[in-house]
């Protein structure tokens, strides 16, 4: 049985796993990326917030992504719930917090393709397309068994293998899961009017209906609605679906045309009771799953990677191993509160839309009204949404860190 040795192994070749492999290879760690790429196009995009853009700049990937992405300069929220207490539309401008854009929107598959292209050219980075089938922690190393029977020996394993993470299960890390009576329809659209780099989110009684800019007169749509309605919409032909979208959007962007694939995304959540085990750290959807609301999922995954990278670099500076218990403890402390707060915020927003109870409508409406009228509060919320003020990972503050 063959066995190869590296410093760090990343299991999972999605956007989070690829970024983790690049981050550690960038810092000179002998890194191996284990897993197969999945670049199927399913209508999904990701709004990369400012902190994630800085992270991708540090990895040297961002310049190649710019032509495929659209800036998000304004975010607009419209209450379309039919509630008795309906606040006026609220707009948030990135210029208020001295940014050109809150972030940039790009297709998921394009992001993965560009990260993979960079990974192939990186020094200190080996790519293995075999699947990991087993994992065990030993006294000073960890061993990963691959599908072909070969083994990889490393100091630290980074589990980026998704919501059904096999490594998380093997390590015995407990999860909490929940679901919502909703499904999200994701689809790419072309439209007659300019979006003016504005993301528009309609709060409906069945969930958010969100149009996010893409280059040109194009946008991505995430339409959160009942499971039955989402399935009905997904079966419509392109012309009928475009008309349904235009009506739901109140003709905000004029006539619509379906301009790419479509897909259904389950509305569910997952959290873990700890972010690691001996020689193992969880990142991305192996650690937390969010419904596609508020652009938090992948941005939090990138923040996981950048925080774990800080913990590993700090360990090396202090004479410790990358996979030491102190390294994993520092990583746990850096992620726990951030993820819990954002989980609660997204869950709370979605549930208030679903309840239809007047107190919930009043609370949500009052909150939006306060944000529209109180400048310092609005700016504080915008800054926190783009990148937490406290404890931001170094690569999300300064590309040279």
TrEMBL record:
Record-linked InterPro entries: FAD-bd, FAD/NAD-bd_sf, UbiH/COQ6, UbiH/COQ6_monooxygenase
Q: Where is the FAD-binding domain?
A: 7-333
* NCBIfam families recorded: PRK07494.1, Ubi-OHases
Q: Which family does it belong to?
A: Belongs to the UbiH/COQ6 family.
Transmembrane region(s): none
Protein name, entry field: 2-octaprenyl-6-methoxyphenol hydroxylase
Superkingdom of this protein's organism: Bacteria
Q: In which pathway does it act?
A: Cofactor biosynthesis; ubiquinone biosynthesis
Q: Which GO terms describe its molecular function?
A: FAD binding; monooxygenase activity; oxidoreductase activity, acting on paired donors, with incorporation or reduction of molecular oxygen
Q: What keywords were assigned to this record?
A: FAD, Flavoprotein, Monooxygenase, Oxidoreductase
